[in-house]
Amino acid sequence: MRLARFDGNRFGLVDGDDVIDVTEALAALPAQSYPFPRTDVLIENFEKLRPALEAAAKSGARKKLADVMLLAPVANPGKIVAAPVNYKKHLEEARADAGIHHQQQVGEIQKVGLFLKATSSVIGAGETILIRHDERRNDHEIELAVVIGKTADRVSKEDALNYVAGYCIGLDMTIRGPEERSLRKSLDTFTVLGPYFVSADEIGDPAGLDLVLTVDGEARQTANTRDLVLDVPTLISWASSFYTLHPGDVILSGTPEGVGPVVPGNTIRATISKVGSMDVKVGHI
Ligand code: MN
């Protein structure tokens, strides 16, 4: 199942090039009151909600996906966990390019660990990446984004994929420079999730997915998730050894080689096989 959030918080089931409005099915979600949970209630209840979503799709209004404004498919991620330098060739390019490493030693992920991005940086594919520091290098990073569906605390690699609700494409936008990653990657609009949420059953094994990123038609990043240093089950297991993962938490699994700068006016096209493709505009704040 493919689910899109669009326009004024409408919710839709993606069917080919169309999106069918199934917002009415969300009325079945449990009522919440203050203090609201730090989870994404829709992702948490996704499996339970499936029949209602399918029923609503029989009579829902149909629109072309191209005609709607796509918002982030996970509205309320509790945390964005991200994997640094998780492709070997990206580690090599980061060590070779002073514009990336800024005289800092670029360590292997096993030594560096994971980092967190502010949830306030999240936007959808229909929104615009806004550059604030034109004087700095602002890079694109395409990544497979893993959406956690069940509470995961110290789970094993073998069991890890059972905790995944689904996937989307992630753009981990980054200012290069000497500061901590969490600062340079947490600017408003610097985490793009889209184009929609694809449930785990449609993907199966997340190893073996092709990733392609172009900027204004120019090829920049081409890779496959089989070349991840730490694969998706290992990332989930490792992350959950430090902190509990909650429904709606997102893991950005790391970017391959080919990272490079974008400037206002560019359009990024990001594609991951079995997941989808999205065009995201780059603008200026
Ligand atoms: Mn990244």
Comma- or semicolon-separated keywords:
285 residues, alpha+beta, SH3 type barrels, Fumarylacetoacetate hydrolase, domain 2, 2 domains, 12-stranded mixed sheet, 5-stranded mixed sheet, 9 helices, 20 strands, binds manganese (II) ion
List the helices and strands and how they pair.
Blueprint: E1 2-6, E2 10-15, E3 18-21, H1 41-44, H2 46-57, E4 62-64, E5 70-71, E6 80-82, H3 88-96, H4 98-101, H5 109-112, E7 115-117, E8 122-123, E9 128-131, E10 138-140, E11 142-148, H6 157-160, E12 164-172, E13 174-175, H7 181-184, E14 191-199, H8 200-203, E15 210-215, E16 218-224, H9 232-242, E17 250-252, E18 260-261, E19 267-272, E20 276-284
Parallel strand pairs: 6-17, 8-14, 9-20
Antiparallel strand pairs: 1-2, 1-5, 1-14, 2-3, 3-4, 6-7, 10-13, 10-18, 11-12, 11-17, 12-14, 15-16, 15-19, 19-20
The structure holds manganese (II) ion (MN).
Description of the molecule:
- The protein has 285 residues and is α+β, with helices and mostly antiparallel strands.
- It folds into two domains: 2-71, SH3 type barrels; 80-284, Fumarylacetoacetate hydrolase, domain 2 (Alpha-Beta Complex).
- Helix content is 20%, strand content 33%.
- It contains nine helices and 20 strands.
- Strands 1, 2, 3, 4, 5, 6, 7, 8, 11, 12, 14 and 17 form a twelve-stranded mixed beta sheet that branches.
- A hairpin with a 3-residue loop joins strand 19 (267-272) and strand 20 (276-284).
- The mean pLDDT is 96.
